[in-house]
Specification:
218 residues, globular, four-stranded mixed sheet, alpha+beta
């Protein structure tokens, strides 16, 4: 009799509320773990993608591509400390070749197929280049560099797809952008003396240059 009673207890169905409570607790725990992992990744990944101290980030882009221009403007607005400097691929062929990235410059084997990011002696292209830029921007943008954890092949296939159709979707200009104001100062070809010469608009160019040099020496 006692054995039958124990068997009935063992075979008795569980309380549905108890089962639901257990499932909810498991899902809640899983969501909490995922949230913690995401938060840790959002902090850890950008830190791992930082260049060495004192090394600038140079972003080279297709100067006649509207999508690329939009990305450069986005980076400028989201980089309050000015860590990223810009340059059109069409204007810096020699510099790119000196860094081993000449194949992406105008006239190269892969000309105008990707943005190029140079940090010191390191060269990055396609999705990795874009993610390296995001990593040095302000929050919340740098969080998105966590996508570098995805396989490079997968990221680059998506990048190539957009790059192939960027002109037909976003359009292009006849010539490279001509930045002005503070934006202009973030470009690699920027010459501070050009702005200083404007301080002497009615002076002969030779004398104005001499005045600029004199003010720099003082």
């Amino acid at each position: 009799t006692e054995a039958r009673s124990l068997r009935r207890v063992a075979l008795a169905p569980r309380d549905p509320c108890e089962s639901l409570s257990g499932m909810f607790s498991l899902r809640h725990a899983s969501a909490s773990v995922a949230a913690v992992a995401l938060a840790c990744g959002a902090y850890w990944v950008p830190e791992q993608l930082q260049p060495p101290p004192g090394v600038d980030t140079w972003l080279f882009f297709d100067g006649v591509c509207n999508l690329c221009d939009g990305f450069v403007n986005f980076v400028y607005m989201g980089d309050s400390t000015g860590r990223v400097r810009f340059g059109a691929l069409q204007k810096h062929g020699d510099l790119l070749r000196s860094k081993g990235a000449g194949r992406y410059a105008e006239g190269g084997e892969e000309a105008m197929t990707t943005v190029v990011v140079i940090q010191g002696d390191d060269v990055y292209v396609r999705s990795t280049a874009a993610l390296r830029v995001l990593a040095v921007m302000d929050q919340p943008w740098r969080i998105f560099s966590v996508f570098s954890l995805l396989p490079t092949s997968l990221r680059d296939e998506a990048y190539k797809l957009v790059a192939r159709h960027r002109y037909s979707i976003f359009g292009q200009k006849q010539e490279c952008m001509k930045p002005t104001g503070d934006f202009k100062r973030r470009f690699l070809e920027y010459d501070p003396s050009e702005d200083q010469l404007k301080e002497f608009p009615f002076m002969d160019p030779g004398r104005a240059q001499h005045a600029v040099q004199g003010s720099q020496g003082s």
